[in-house]
Design a protein that fits this description.
With about 375 residues, the protein is of the alpha/beta class. It has two domains: about 230 residues, no CATH class; about 100 residues, no CATH class. Helices cover about 65% and strands about 5% of the residues. It contains 17 helices and four strands. Strands 2-1-3-4 form a four-stranded mixed sheet. Helix 4 links the parallel strand 1 and strand 2. Helix 8 packs across helix 16. It is elongated.
Length: about 375
């Protein structure tokens, strides 16, 4: 009978087009909008070669000339020789004019200008240090100091893309949107909620058998949708999830169960109509997504600073943080903590649902 209930529920759930829309098509559409809105943010913030003008007489120094050549080779500077600082007014691409090692002129104080000043200050300090060392001991081996592959070392992660957080939150929302499947199942087996539930209650098959089969189907569908959505984000929208596939799949499986359990709890905890409960679920899920930073990342920061417990109890935020930590951190400690937290939230939903479903008797159906 378990297999029979499993097959029938599978057929019934797959016919629910509205639920398929909200659980899969709606997140896909949101993903497209996110890509259009945020797709060019990282491109616009990438480092671009800085136009720098250098005093012609300063370039006569072979060491300075060699250093500027290396800066061009490393694509940090685009060097132009000039007689004076007037070139700043004549050429907008020139961000700084280096008159001497202690005189650098700029039109404004910006990121590019600060980078130029920082690099030149570092070069000046190193030059002074070499001069002092040579003055004390002309025989000192300076190869270690002078043999530099890259004068500016980029220690940031090459895969760092802050827009990923928006898509990670969208993934968290999608898994919890699976509450609809759990909500639908609750209406099939709670006799005070629907006519179908009354029929199922008086059927010879045990309620526990039918309910467990239906919940398994709901979880499989939600889990499948989550995996399909991850594939869509990765290959259609170019969202990078890293190479830790197994933990990501495990997270998807657990969060899919969380969504279904959340839906069952909404279904059995009150006697509102199914339309009202569907709207309630959408509203709560969107609120969770908002607090997790899907609409505005600064909201998540504010919550973390002033009420950190909120997002510890927010499954969308927990899923988002788990994907984030899985991708950005080498250690699995934070990810494992999120998994434990999500498992406890899921357990709470299940226990609370059982509390509302326990020992119900009906005088008539």
């Amino acid at each position: 009978m378990f297999l029979h209930s499993f097959k029938n529920t599978f057929k019934v759930l797959l016919r629910q087009r509205a639920m398929l829309f909200w659980s899969l098509i709606f997140p896909i559409v949101l993903g497209i909008f996110f890509k259009l809105a945020f797709g060019n943010i990282m491109e616009s913030t990438k480092f671009k070669t800085i136009g720098v003008a250098v005093n012609e007489s300063l370039m006569e120094d072979e060491y300075i000339k060699s250093f500027m050549k290396e800066m061009e080779d490393e694509e940090y500077f685009k060097v132009t020789e000039a007689k004076n600082a007037d070139i700043l007014d004549e050429d907008d691409s020139i961000k700084a004019y280096i008159d001497s090692m202690d005189k650098i002129y700029t039109k404004k104080s910006g990121i590019s200008e600060t980078i130029v000043e920082t690099i030149m200050n570092a070069y000046s300090q190193k030059s002074s240090m070499v001069a002092r060392i040579m003055q004390k001991d002309p025989m000192t081996d300076l190869s270690t100091l002078l043999d530099v592959d890259n004068h500016v070392k980029d220690v940031s992660r090459k895969n760092m893309d802050m827009t990923n957080t928006f898509f990670y939150t969208l993934l968290g929302m999608t898994t919890i949107y699976g509450y609809m499947w759990g909500l639908f199942v609750s209406y099939q087996y709670e006799a005070n909620l629907s006519t179908n539930a009354k029929r199922n209650t008086v059927s010879p098959t045990k309620k526990g058998t039918m309910l467990s089969a239906s919940l398994l189907v709901s979880w499989i569908i939600n889990f499948t949708i989550t995996i399909v959505f991850i594939i869509y984000l990765k290959y259609a929208l170019g969202v990078d999830f890293g190479d830790r596939i197994a933990p990501l799949v495990a997270l998807s499986a657990l969060s899919s169960l969380t969504g279904v359990a959340f839906g069952v709890l909404i279904g059995v905890s009150n006697k509102a109509s199914i339309d009202a409960k569907t709207g309630m679920g959408i509203a709560i899920t969107m609120l969770m997504s908002f607090l997790a930073g899907m609409m505005a990342p600064e909201i998540k920061i504010l919550v973390a600073e002033h009420a950190p417990i909120v997002n510890k109890l927010n499954p969308v935020a927990v899923v988002t943080d788990a994907v984030y930590s899985l991708y950005y951190y080498d250690s699995m400690t934070r990810f494992n903590g999120d998994i434990i937290n999500l498992a406890l939230i899921t357990l709470f939903f299940i226990v609370a649902s059982l509390f509302f479903m326990r020992g119900k008797e009906y005088e008539s159906l």
